[in-house]
Amino acid sequence: MPKSESLLFLKRLKEDGIEHVHVSKKSKPQISNTRTTDLPKNVSEDMVHGPDAGILKLRDEVLKCKLCSELARTRNKIVFGAGNIQAKLVFVGEAPGADEDQQGLPFVGRAGQLLTKIIEAMGMTRDQVFICNVLKCRPPHNRPPAPGEVVNCRPFLKRQLEIIKPKVIVALGNHAVKALLQTEQGISQLRGTFKEYEGIPLMCTYHPAYLLRSPGEKRKVWEDMKKVIQFLERSEE
Ligand code: URA
For residues 158 and 136, is the Cβ–Cβ distance under 8 A? Predict the structure, then answer.
């Protein structure tokens, strides 16, 4: 990557105030023409020159997207996703709500607080996983994603998952399950089962917002998450 391009890249990152993006220490940068000491604190060389650069390029594209005219008009912030881009586990929700639209971060409202508790109960932190949604923009009044919006946004999700290459995906709720598996089967039929998305095991479970309305169902989600933990532990052996 030419130096002018990488400087432009850095400028954009600084302007955007990148947060919650994992800084890789493991992998070696492929090209190195900027000293690490010149980079902002939360940006590694890999994010500019190396294997992590793909996620930033994608993020730039997502942040410019105007494919869904209504969402582009009504959104406040686009919610790309947040967490560790080398995560073994990715959670996929439906779409940003009001809090997420304000902050530009996924799952930060009440449902997000419950998702944080679920992740912590699994023995992890939000910084160890990646969290994103099917739609990157908030549908007005939190209406469900329209089919055309899912079609427009799904390629972004596909590329996120191609770059991150998690060991497991957790699809939260009906919209995530349907968008990823392109199935007519609903969440009540699929919950608790592993399916496959592009060769990656995908656990279908209830959305945390549903659990807020039906707390009696939390136990089922915990059963599902135990299966995910077991799968991850076995894949480490
Ligand atoms: N619900 C979702 O599906 N995603 C969010 O980011 C927040 C609430």
Answer: no
